[in-house]
Amino acid sequence: MYSIEMKNVSKEFKVLNRHEGLKGSLKDLFSRDYKIIRAVDNINMNIEQGEIVGYLGPNGAGKSTTIKMMTGVLEPTSGEILVGGNVPYKNRTKNAQEIGVVFGQRSQLWWALPLIESFKILKDIYGVSDEDYNNMLTLYQSLVDIEPLLHKPVRQMSLGQRTLSDILAAFLHNPKIVFLDEPTIGLDVSMKAKIRTLIHALNKEKNTTVILTTHDMGDVDALCQRIVIIDKGKMLYDNDTMHLKNFFGSYRTLKIRIDGNLKQQTEKIKFALPDFSISADEEWISILIDEEKAKVMEVLNQLQSSYEIRDMQLEEISTEDVIKKIYEEGVE
Amino acid sequence: MKIKKFLTLTRAGIIESLQFRLGTVVIIIGNILYLIVVYFLWKAIYSSAGTDIVNGMTFSDTLIYLVLATALFNFMEMYIVWEIGRNIQSGKIVLDLIKPMKYRQYMFWSYSGSFITNFFFTLLPTFIVVAIVTHGAIYFGINLLLFIISVIIAVSINYSIDFIVGTICLYTESIWGINIMKQVIVMLLSGVTVPIAFFPEPLKSIVYHLPFQSIYNAPLSVLLDGNPQLNTVLTTIGTQLFWCVTMIALSKLFWKVSIRKITVNGG
Description:
By secondary structure, chain A is α/β, with parallel strands linked by helices. Chain A has 13 helices and 13 strands.
């Protein structure tokens, strides 16, 4: 049985066509002029237990709508969804017992109370046994330093601490599936890294399925083996992160720094390596290498024989570029 | 096990409301000011009437009724409509909907803590003060027990009405007007602001056929009746029970139909 199964799922919203200005607004009061917006359009996917799936797409692509359907908040217009064997919107309370959710912009914690009180409330609401609860807290303790957070009221926490706490709260009842909707939004680099490590560890430890929506490619690179990309409600891509990289990423960029007049040198190199696209900025000369035509090492050797290379870098094509490319060119 | 789920929310509510001590003080001051206004208003009404008894109530009868009505109002008012409306507008309702509990129950129990704190901070003190100051306007007998039963039913009716009005916010996505309208209707027709004895005849009989009087008028009349007749009590509490069951059913049904329409912000 799959952890999540979606078959031909679509969601339509009926939206009033609004008119401009005072006159238009008055007209809208009596208008029956609706338009149908297809927020999610015929999505199919099967997700195995324990997978971390990156769910990507630009703003308004339909990511949150999909998540809301999986959590049972929204009912799909057509198609079938099974989450852990349940139809979410029909058994919302039963489904809720099996899932955990973090929305990056809002908190499910009790604002005025210390974190430990929120944990206790959630423990009772989800009916977690004392033993499981204590084991979970011990696990948390081993992963992050939560002791100073436990007795701090949530409203006094920094955004990073709050997000961290929200993630811990979502995993507290040991759900089979956790939805993380932009968990790293607005956080600094070190907090992002901390949160990624935490998600990764919890996934490994409890074999929890994680559905992660994000705009941060760093999250995807650090966590996801598989990515699903949607845009305008339609699914563009569903496969391994590696596969996508191979498909687009047989290109690598070799950057070198050498002495002397950069412009002259660049011209010389261009002459020596006519097959590659070469560009230069203030410091670096970049050579885009198609690895199906030539090995990076060979190019480097060739360059080293004629120039003294001060410094070098090798850059992968980032997932961000890949997605940009999918939007521009599509993928088979 | 099941009841623990709910009581933990009550407990959280109590702790939460204790965090805002200053809020309680402000509410008490506000009430005292309100009661001063009430005192002078009704004093003026009685002196212009020229008789000691108006519509079968003396000045002190009226005042005792209104003071207790105000205390009861502060005890029962949950501001649930604001909360549901705000949660719908901000989209926070999603987080409440994914709790493993029915939304109607979740909201009620989340607010139940305030009943406990309000009881000890406003209702009980007011009750004691009124009992001492008036020397025996409140009878201590079976009516106290009936009053408690009546208040519990009233809380349920009040919550159901609030929940229905809150559900309307799913459609309108605005709360202010609806809430003000609800508050005016409930406060007038339930007898919090003006005792129902003062209503003109046709309105009085209409009001007795509406659910609102079961919220404040019913428990207060049970409390202030020193010589309860079985018949009167059965009619009052029976009517309350009828509205309680009806409103629970209505609010559940309305929610069930409406939740399918929900379109929470953001997509």
